[in-house]
Design goal:
With 80 residues, this protein is mainly α. 80% of the residues lie in helices and 0% in strands.
């Protein structure tokens, strides 16, 4: 496995874990467990950000181009 594949695999796994924890937070009825899940999610999001910055720096991940003003306005108008 190349470094690029490994980094992208870690990002993908982190995204999946964060999504599962978010769902668990939404369904949780126990305050202590919910707080623990929120803390875990926040830690994973910080780790994900660090890995993302490494991937971006090495050219393993190229983010989408920023949306133009007209595109942003079109979306805002369609949902408001």
């Amino acid at each position: 496995m190349t470094e690029k594949l490994g980094v992208n695999d870690v990002l993908s796994t982190l995204n999946s874990m964060i999504n599962m924890i978010n769902y668990s937070i939404q369904q949780c009825n126990n305050k202590n467990l919910r707080d623990t899940l929120i803390t875990s999610r926040n830690s994973l999001e910080n780790y994900q950000w660090q890995i993302y910055l490494i991937a971006k720096e090495k050219g393993y991940y190229v983010p989408a181009a920023p949306a133009g003003v007209a595109d942003v306005e079109q979306v805002k108008n369609s949902i408001c």
